[in-house]
Amino acid sequence: MARQLAEGRLAQPFGITVPAGRYYVAWPSDRAVSPAMARFTQWLAGAASGPE
Can you tell me whether residue 40 is helix, strand or coil? Predict the structure, then answer.
């Protein structure tokens, strides 16, 4: 990815970065977590943890 950034093929829109290999879920802080979002985040956490 560093090469693509240096070549101008990718652009970093924000100054912050996160470590590779991690997952983040974000939603507006003024909205409650819906049952669908809760199920999705549970599914994502299970999928990200690898094979059972």
Answer: helix
Indicate whether 4 pLDDT > 80. yes
Residue type, 3: R
In terms of Cβ atoms closer than 10 Å to its own Cβ (0-12, 13-18, 19+), residue 41 is: middle
Query: Which amino acid is located at 52 in the chain?
Result: E
Q: How many CB atoms lie within 10 A of CB 37?
A: 13
**Which H helix or E strand runs over 45?**
helix 35-48
In whole angstroms, what is the distance from residue 40 CA to residue 2 CA? 31
Neighbours of 51 (CB within 10 A): 4
Q: What is the pTM of this model?
A: 0.49
